[in-house]
Amino acid sequence: MRKSLYRDLTILLTIFVGCWAVFTFVPWSNFFSTPDITMSVENEEKLGKLIVDYSILKDPTITIIHDPKIDSALRVVTHLLVTNIGKTDFEYNFRIIKSDQINAFTLPGGNIFIYSGLIEFCDSPEQLCAVLSHEIGHAEKRHVIDKLVKELGISLIFSVLGGNDNIMISEIGRTATSTVFDRKQEKEADDFSFHLMENSNVNPKALATFFRKLSDQYGEYNEHIEILMTHPNNNSRIKASLEYHVKPGFAEKKIELDWNKVIEVLKNQGTQQKH
Question: What is the rounded average pLDDT for all residues in the chain?
């Protein structure tokens, strides 16, 4: 009787250890997860150009601001960031859209659009740097193209790349500009922005300053402030920015721009040229 009990216990223990080993060491995610579908950088850039050319620049409701002083100021900010990204697959293009919205968005291939309302809302070029660093983070992490592939399917996107269907390109453009990133992607973009600002000698706390101003003026959510809808959980992001530790020897350098003059010129835009 006792031998039988010991034998049964031994068998049960062997089964338990075996099950534990299987579930611990076998990569079950390989069996159940959906494999990542990636797109080449070349195809992403082609898709981005199609969206810009046919969905953005041909939209009669969109006005792209062209002003020598504003363009010059934007180049100061964007050149500082782009030269400190390090190795990148993209040649970045930044454009300003005339709009009161406080927002910016990233399209495939390193195309970033900034609403004039966002620039006017920023108290300093460093705050604009913070927001653009975040958008660059989305581009470098390829969040936009990943979302498009998941939402629309790789087959549809490749069919557009091969056929230049303007109607479908416009639909993809609308999906891209309305894309809401999940919190993991937002955190990845924020973390990237902190490092990029640090490398650019811009204080990473500028992102906290920007979002704190948003929260103070508009609360945690306002349907008229798009950036509050697409970038949730401001408090945790403010906290992450404030708690980010720069490397020893970090030397903050103020961006030499007459920011008040930039805002004045931007607000006085009365006769913008289209595209």
Answer: 82
Please tell me the predicted confidence (pLDDT) of residue 235.
76
Cβ–Cβ < 8 Å for 115, 132:
no
In the chain, where are the structural domains located?
1-33, 40-267
Select the highest-mean-pLDDT range: 15-19, 89-93, 185-189, 267-271: 89-93
Helices (H), the chain: 2-25, 29-32, 41-51, 68-82, 116-121, 125-140, 143-152, 154-163, 166-177, 183-199, 206-218, 226-230, 234-243, 259-267
Cα 102 to its chain centre, rounded Å, is: 15
Q: Is the pTM of this model over 0.85?
A: no
Cα(139)–Cα(112) distance, integer angstroms = 9
The better pLDDT of the pair 18, 90 is held by 90
